[in-house]
Amino acid sequence: MAGYSVPKQNVEVEEVIKGSRFITRLVNVDTVDKAKGYLKSLREQEPTATHHCWAYIVGNPQSTTLIGCSDDGEPAGTAGKPMLNVLQHSDVGDLIAVCTRYYGGTKLGTGGLARAYGGGVKLAMEQLDTCEKINKVELVLNVAYECGKDLEHIVAQYDAEILNTEYLEAVEYKMLLPSENRDPLEQQLELRFGDKIQWKFIQ
């Protein structure tokens, strides 16, 4: 079944490089707003940090255009891009990496910074457990009573999860369905039940 890997839990690692503390955090975020919200809360929690550099990938890492990164005041290209590069090669989506730096008095140079920020994300990724996320759509079906058992049998073959059943003039089912199974299920319902069934998808 098509899906993609997402973080199973948050990860935090810390390194000290030439006196500077680098704290790298990985957090599951499934929208850009959540990514920005996490970053905002971290800035509020640690206002004395020198930098909060970040990168995120929201959605399926193979197809999403919802990516972003920031050097947050470090020299251009030394933090956000190396961090995003590690994320893009990890095949994990719905993820933000934030690397918080507390400056220790010794400059690292552009190469040293890129290695520190990219290396922090790589180290954190090595400790990250993932699970698979399946994109789903919600489906509402109304079917004649005599068709109920047949319907339940058919939707089970398409990995549909029945959330609720109401017995009204007809039987109303609410269910979650993997997005990739939407079209084949529609065809099967039309073929099997014709005008005995009505359905709509809720995005």
From TrEMBL:
Ranges where the UPF0029 domain occurs: 151-189
BP-aspect Gene Ontology terms: regulation of translational initiation
Any one GO MF annotation of this record: anion binding
Domain of life according to the entry: Bacteria
Occurrences of domain Impact N-terminal (ranges): 18-124
A cellular-component GO term for this protein: cytoplasm
Matching Pfam families: DUF1949, Impact_N
Residue ranges of coiled coil: none
UniProt record similarity statement: Belongs to the IMPACT family.
NCBIfam families recorded: IMPACT_YIGZ
Name recorded for this polypeptide: YigZ family protein
Originating organism: Pleionea litopenaei
